[in-house]
Design brief:
Structural class: mainly beta
Mean pLDDT: 84
Order of helices and strands: EEEEEEEEEE
Number of domains: 1
Strand order of the largest sheet: 4-5-6-7-8-9-10
Distance between the termini: 14 Å
Number of helices: 0
Number of strands: 10
Radius of gyration: 16 Å
Helix content: under 10%
Length: 142
Amino acid sequence: MLREHLAPKLRPARAGVSVRGLTVVRADDTGLDVVVDGLALPLEQGARFQLDYHEDGSSLAQSCTVGALVPASSVHAAIPGSARAIDCSGRGRYHGIPVRVTAKVVYLVALGVFLDVEQRIEAPVGHLRGGTRVLSFEMGPR
């Protein structure tokens, strides 16, 4: 999955390749910024796994629980098959500031890709909500 994150005008956008949607690897990276523990495919309802992020002096530990199957078309009408709903929550520190994070993720079964649908970050300095919306989708040649 190729994705491009659009950054504020002060810095250029950085292209990267997503590792099944769990982390993004860029050409200048020397290591991965996430450790995944307990994740087993195929995902089963009620399964749990842990995500531990460490990047640029920040860290975040999240526990994730796999939910029910939903139609993948709920993400975008053209996505085939089903998706697993996943809820994650955790705590960490962002440049020394304590944060609490919740996320809604889907695993697109036919594609084998995780997609971060919504993320909420709560910190003493304020709250932030971000999300991903699929604007277009087409299957490539198999």
